[in-house]
Amino acid sequence: MNKLTHLDDKGAAHMVDVGGKRETARLAVAEGRIRMNAEALDAIMAGATAKGDALATARIAGIMAAKKTGDLIPLCHPLGLESVTVEFEREDDAIRVVASASLTGKTGVEMEAMTAAGIALLTLYDMGKAIDRAMVIGGVRLLSKTGGKSGEWNAED
């Protein structure tokens, strides 16, 4: 895993050929957080922003984004995802987003899970910015992945 897989022998970017790989069940889980003031946090959690139910809108946005990852990130393969979930957890001064993506296929779904988390967070910002423009999005990262020849991987806390 020391070689950058999206660069050929001459250093040029290319899409990885997955034609010879075998299909395996693959799952990736990602997270991120959006910090905000108490008024925005209460409004978002209650579904009471001026734009409506922010959590429902962010969930749909995250799922839609995961399905479009191959269109958004130049060298990602377009994938037929079998499942995408986007969940929210209230924290003291933030909302934690946890997104997962899965399929049975020849390439992983890490980028799809992280895209889902990132777009869900941006949607929460959009839905709550009338209350708190100083919200801060951060910590988008891969938590775990399974499947493929590299097997299972889990982030260290």
Shape assignment: elongated
Helix content range: 25-40%
The count of helical stretches stands at: 4
Largest sheet: 5 strands, antiparallel
**CA radius of gyration:** 17 Å
- Briefly note the structural class of the backbone: alpha+beta
Strand content: 25-35%
Poorly predicted runs of 5 or more residues: none
Average pLDDT reading: 93
- The count of β-strands is 5
Distance between the termini: 21 Å
Order of helices and strands: EHHHEEHEE
Order of strands across the main sheet: 2-3-1-4-5
3D structure, described in words:
With 157 residues, this protein is of the alpha+beta class. Helix content is 29%, strand content 29%. It contains four helices and five strands; from the N terminus they run βαααββαββ. The chain has helices at 38-46, 54-67, 69-72, 110-128, and strands spanning 24-35, 83-90, 94-105, 136-146, 153-154. A five-stranded antiparallel beta sheet has the order 2-3-1-4-5, with helices on one face. A hairpin with a 6-residue loop joins strand 4 and strand 5. The radius of gyration is 17 Å and the shape is elongated.
Please provide a brief summary of the model.
The protein has helices at 38-46, 54-67, 69-72, 110-128; strands spanning 24-35, 83-90, 94-105, 136-146, 153-154.
